[in-house]
Design brief:
429 residues, alpha/beta, Aspartate Aminotransferase, domain 1, Aspartate Aminotransferase, domain 2, 2 domains, 7-stranded mixed beta sheet, 37% helix, 14% strand, globular
């Protein structure tokens, strides 16, 4: 598209936007009496207005039924997690029996590693991206230590080439091939939290399987952001949170995917809990764990209903809109942000701000990471004071995420105005 950095152009795009009406289905923050430009849905999504009714219903059912709400409430709590499965499966491209919502992200990854990281003396190494999200890094460090290895010997990190910010897919595949005989697992973030790079999950899975390793992914920044096809891509396992693009509230329940070749195999080892046990016999309280076929067999405890109610409200919106339509708008919206940013920054040669997210729209979602060159964190703080809610990642990156469900093209234009004003003041220092 031939973008123009004008208010008229932005407003014209908003008038033509078939998803524009969904913006009004979300609460938009007003901070210190000021309506803000919210570009941090990659950290915490905005609250759908429907959440209040969904959570309120379960509070009423609790008040009215007490423990009997497990079986007699409108949405029986005993099977509440099942209400989230169809929409979750559609979002990640899975069969319904391959998906379950439970626990939280890193907890789920540790549980999945019990099943899918079982190293031997020969095959014990894990290959991951350099500068992975810290929680993933700590996960890997402690998992290999639990099995008697050191991080230095068991974790292989792949970094960008000198002078580059993003990984080249061919370098990852080459590293997999190089370490193939010793490799137990390839584990990546689906979208790198720092740069916003979207990895070729199908290609990485094929490369891992070609050397006899398994492939798993942290999809915290991918689910609800990009179309996924985990079943068709033959991914072994994945996990995600629901508070970023899925707008389910801070720290809410996570989700997991386990490919049916593992999930339907009762011999696939996993830790047991009573909510993963055979439903027909769960309340007999007998010894002997018999896992439910599919991803449900990885559950430990009963559903946290109030949090799941918030997720249920948001998933209903995703089901109504469809991830394909969200992706169409995301491509336009993120492309417009890139154009506005480059247009504004280009007017100030004395201040260098660089987008480090891939320029290829196919290799990114709705996040642009900006490296602060010639400025410092005070510039991010000035953005915040001016009413732009983004986030900062050490040492020098601001992440901007225009979310198609609730960000407008005019939001992007207004951001450009704020950026221009700040750069004028910064250059004058």
């Amino acid at each position: 598209m031939d973008y123009q950095n004008t208010l008229a152009f932005a407003q014209a795009l908003d008038r033509q936007d078939p998803l524009a009406r969904y913006r009004e289905q979300f609460h938009h923050p007003v901070i210190n009496g000021q309506s803000v430009l919210y570009f941090t849905g990659n950290s915490l999504g905005l609250q759908p207005k429907s959440v209040k009714d969904h959570v309120g219903l379960e509070l009423e059912e609790w008040a009215n039924w007490g423990v009997e709400g497990h079986f007699h409430s409108k949405n029986p709590w005993y099977s509440y997690h099942e209400l989230l499965t169809p929409a979750s499966a559609r979002l990640v491209g899975a069969e319904e029996h391959e998906v379950v919502c439970m626990n939280s992200l890193t907890t789920n990854l540790h549980l999945l590693f019990v099943s899918f990281y079982q190293p031997s003396a020969q095959r014990f190494k894990i290959l991951c991206e350099g500068k992975a999200f810290p929680s993933d890094r700590y996960l890997l460090e402690t998992q290999v230590q639990f099995h008697g290895f050191t991080p230095e010997e068991a974790i292989i990190e792949v970094f960008p080439r000198e002078g580059e910010h993003c990984l080249r897919e061919e370098d990852i595949v080459a590293a997999i091939a190089e370490h193939g005989d010793e490799l137990a697992l390839v584990f990546f973030g689906g979208v790198n939290y720092f740069t916003g790079q979207f990895f070729d999950l199908a290609g990485l899975t094929r490369a891992a399987h070609a050397v006899g390793a398994l492939a798993g992914f942290d999809l915290a920044h991918a689910v609800g952001n990009l179309p996924l096809a985990l079943h068709d891509w033959e991914v072994d396992f994945a996990a995600w949170c629901t508070y970023k693009y899925l707008n389910a509230s801070a720290g809410n329940v996570g989700g997991v995917f386990i490919h049916e070749r593992h999930g339907l195999d009762p011999d696939t080892f996993r830790f047991g809990g009573w909510w993963g046990h055979d439903k027909a016999n769960r309340f007999k309280m007998e010894s002997g764990f018999t896992p439910i076929p599919g991803a449900e067999g990885w559950q430990l405890s009963n559903a946290p209903v109030l949090g799941m109610a918030a997720l249920k409200a948001s998933l209903a919106i995703f089901d109504e809109v469809g991830i394909a339509h969200l992706r169409e708008k995301s491509l336009l919206l993120t492309g417009f942000l890139e154009h506005v940013f480059n247009d504004v920054v280009g007017r100030f040669p004395g201040v260098s701000l660089e987008i480090i997210t891939p320029r290829d729209p196919a290799r990114r979602g709705c996040q642009l990471s900006v490296k602060l060159i010639g400025t410092d964190k005070r510039f991010f703080e000035a953005l915040t004071e001016a009413g732009v809610i983004a986030d900062f990642r050490e040492p020098d990156v601001v992440r901007l995420a225009p979310v198609p469900l609730y960000n407008a093209f005019e939001d992007v234009y207004r951001f450009g105005e704020v950026l221009h004003q700040l750069l004028e003041g910064w250059e004058a220092r």
